[in-house]
Design a protein that fits this description.
Mean pLDDT: 88
Number of domains: 1
Strand content: under 5%
Shape: globular
Number of helices: 24
Order of helices and strands: HHHHHHHHEEHHHHHHHHHHHHHHHH
Helix content: over 70%
Distance between the termini: 34 Å
């Protein structure tokens, strides 16, 4: 009898152990490790992602002279290869169930991406610029071909991507290598002879493996959010040290990028990361420490400049202030002290959630700050156009000279949209045909004022408005808003959701003042696809139920 009782107890304990392990398995399935079994589709997709994180940033056939076409060919080519392997595994009878299950789950983002492609096709078909709209050869090589590549990448990767940290760790290393090359270029050291055949007068605006400094700044707005998010969520000392080094190198990359748009991207993703970090003292310590490292890296760069006897390329106001202004030492001391303070606080409270009032207050302050900046810009650009703002007018008053003449392109973009006919209002003039439209109406005026022709609005959203119309822009914005909102709702369940959402926010913020090219823009659509893949694998309702069950 006693033996029966003991055996029953053993069975019960085994059953309970089984249940516990089952729960653990369910939890880990949303953040798999390298030991987890991946399907063939998932293996190919993760290899594709690793290739984008490592080979894509350095792929070139003729140094910096053919970068746009090189990256276009790499991205479209490898995406087609990925599709081929995924279809081949299906035809070979591998992972058929997973194939069907993943394909037929349409979401708002799916519909938005399909509409984005359909509008682009219609726009190309109706365009008076024909082949230029297909290839983008007269613009930035961002015609229909690469747009189709973006949509293809989205649908394949979003279905078969399974998150784990390794690709992102690899990305930290590869981006650091690219940034180190940029820092060497800043001090006129060119180990790979990338700049030797570029005119000396132009070498100051070309850097690293990305060419133009604005394009390099765009890349920093992709890589830095990844590293910062990994640092804030790191759990052990080795990973914290690894990501800390990555943050320092990355921020020095932002300094040498010498582009104001990069600081807009930085402010955007750091604001969201700040709100996320206020959840508990552990995250807040890492966030404050991250800011401390960014400020410290400015002075590390100053030491480098002394080593090279101040023989560096020209720096604009923001990086020059951060590097040479001694008041930055005060900020370093403040954030160093806060880091120590929050270190001891997190030792005491660990990951205990902060009061809701703190989180709401911080989120409200961030939102108010953003709305205030936008409000000031609108007020001084549209209402009060006479008050002398001094140097602030370069930032707060839109006119033809604003933003190194970006204002000229912005204002003409809106005029073109409003006056160029109903067809162009709806579907635009054709992908990447902004330059042709501007030449048609403003060629002489542009050459007279600027000595050159704008082939982009230097604002991604306005460029899309002119080239693929209101319908194309609406579908694009719908995808961005939907994937960001859904990603933010999954911050607590997935580090991957945090990383991808921060990258999308950072990229979009800087793209308000920049342009899109095959050199960097494929990263945006890759991260949209990665985010959608995470969203599809984490049904929010199921996670909420799991959380409630675990609490019980």
């Amino acid at each position: 009898m006693s033996k029966n009782k003991s055996s029953n107890k053993e069975n019960n304990s085994n059953a309970s152990t089984g249940k516990k392990s089952e729960v653990k398995k369910t939890k880990s399935s949303y953040a798999p490790t390298l030991n987890d079994t991946l399907s063939m589709h998932e293996k190919f997709t993760n290899l594709y992602v690793i290739g984008m994180f490592t080979l894509f940033p350095v792929f070139m056939t003729d140094k910096l002279f053919n970068l746009r076409k090189d990256r276009l060919h790499y991205f479209v080519g490898t995406t087609i290869v990925l599709l081929f392997f995924v279809i081949a595994t299906y035809l070979c009878g591998i992972d058929k169930k997973k194939w069907v299950k993943n394909i037929f789950k349409p979401t708002v983002e799916d519909i938005g991406m399909l509409c984005f492609l359909i509008v682009s096709v219609i726009s190309t078909a109706l365009s008076e610029y024909g082949m230029e709209a297909v290839t983008g050869s007269e613009g930035r090589d961002s015609g229909l071909i690469i747009m189709a590549g973006y949509v293809l990448c989205y649908f394949v990767v979003s279905r078969y991507y399974k998150y784990h940290k390794l690709p992102y760790d690899i990305f930290v290393v590869s981006s650091a290598i690219v940034v180190i090359i940029a820092i060497l270029h800043e001090f006129y050291i060119d180990p790979f002879n990338l700049l030797t055949e570029i005119a000396e007068s132009q070498q100051t605006i070309f850097i690293s493996t990305f060419g133009n400094i604005n394009i390099f700044s765009c890349f920093i707005c992709v890589s830095m959010p990844v590293i910062a998010a990994l640092l804030v969520t790191s759990k052990d000392i080795p990973s914290t040290v690894f990501y800390s080094i990555g943050v320092c190198i990355s921020f020095m990359g932002l300094l040498v990028a010498n582009s104001d748009s990069g600081y807009v991207g930085l402010a955007a993703f750091m604001s969201i990361l700040f709100v996320y970090s206020c959840k508990n003292a552990q995250r807040m310590f890492k966030f404050v420490f991250c800011v401390f490292l960014m400020l410290l890296s400015c002075k590390i760069f100053r030491l480098l400049s002394l080593v090279f006897k101040d023989n560096y390329k020209r720096l604009d106001t923001i990086p020059k202030t951060l590097i040479f202004n001694n008041k930055i030492y005060i900020l370093i001391a403040v954030f160093g002290g806060l880091s120590v303070l929050f270190y001891f606080i997190q030792k005491k409270y660990n990951d205990r959630p902060s009061p809701k009032a703190v989180q709401i207050t911080v989120a409200s302050l961030v939102a108010l700050s953003v709305l205030s900046v936008i409000g000031l810009f609108v007020y001084f650009s549209a209402i009060d156009t006479t008050t002398d703002l001094g140097k602030l007018s370069n930032y707060l008053r839109l006119n033809d000279k604003w933003g190194t003449h970006r204002g000229y392109a912005w204002i003409r973009s809106v005029i073109l949209f409003k006056t160029n006919g109903i067809k162009n209002m709806l579907v635009g003039s054709g992908p990447d045909t902004f330059g042709q439209v501007m030449k048609k109406y403003y060629r002489e005026d542009m050459i007279k004022r600027h000595g050159s022709v704008f082939d982009s609005a230097h604002n991604e959203f306005l460029t899309y408005l002119v080239t693929i119309g209101a319908l194309g822009l609406l579908s694009y914005v719908t995808v961005l808003v939907s994937v960001v909102v859904k990603g933010m709702r999954r911050f607590e369940y997935s580090i991957g959701a945090l990383i991808t959402t921060l990258v999308i926010i950072s990229y979009c913020a800087q793209s308000m003042f920049s342009l899109f090219t095959p050199i960097v823009t494929p990263f945006l659509f890759l991260f949209i696809a990665l985010s959608e893949g995470i969203i599809r694998r984490i049904p929010l309702e199921k996670k909420v139920k799991e959380k409630q069950t675990n609490k019980e």
